[in-house]
């Protein structure tokens, strides 16, 4: 859709009359540390490298930013790096695939929260790496659901499914 949400979290979904989830709150004003992709924390830059010209295969290459201080968020937005340098508008222009895979991570983290019914105190989370993923022993979720959600939260964005692949997965599940 050539846009981004940036604030994907359980509270930004509602259930409509057809019992489908709708993503709401498209203000694009802040990313929560609980669902933010670790590589989108404002400390990384990304480039897409061609690995197979013939098949049009590319790989995202992330490098730690080491230049001078930079800011594209208003003063007072917060101390965390993602509140100083917001990668979402930058990646939308320069590397849309990186932006998409960061949003897939946020969807994965949100699905994990909803499916596992995790009620941890997420108010203390300062960085995405602070969240510890656990499914608990008492869930009765299909294993392939857990596998897909975990793929969405892969540390290496190159290993995550695309938004289209994720949508196709859930569409197939609703047809069963």
UniProtKB/TrEMBL annotation:
Residues 1-176 form the Protein kinase domain. Gene3D superfamilies: Transferase(Phosphotransferase) domain 1. InterPro entries: Kinase-like_dom_sf, Prot_kinase_dom. It comes from the Eukaryota. Signal peptide: none annotated. One of its GO terms (molecular function) is ATP binding. This is Protein kinase domain-containing protein. It comes from Gomphillus americanus.
């Amino acid at each position: 859709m050539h846009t981004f949400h940036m604030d994907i979290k359980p509270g930004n979904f509602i259930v409509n009359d057809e019992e489908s989830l709708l993503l709401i709150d498209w203000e694009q004003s802040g990313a929560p540390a609980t669902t933010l992709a670790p590589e989108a924390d404002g400390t990384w830059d990304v480039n897409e490298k061609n690995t197979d010209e013939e098949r049009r295969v590319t790989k995202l290459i992330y490098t730690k930013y080491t230049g001078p201080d930079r800011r594209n968020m208003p003063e007072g937005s917060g101390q965390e790096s993602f509140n100083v340098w917001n990668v979402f508008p930058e990646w939308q222009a320069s590397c849309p695939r990186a932006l998409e895979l960061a949003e897939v991570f946020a969807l994965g983290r949100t699905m994990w929260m909803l499916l596992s019914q995790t009620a941890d105190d997420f108010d203390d989370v300062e960085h995405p790496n602070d969240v510890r993923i656990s499914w608990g022993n008492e869930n009765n979720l299909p294993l392939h659901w857990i596998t897909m959600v975990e793929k969405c939260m892969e540390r290496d964005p190159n290993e995550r499914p695309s938004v289209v692949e994720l949508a196709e997965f859930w569409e197939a599940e609703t047809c069963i």
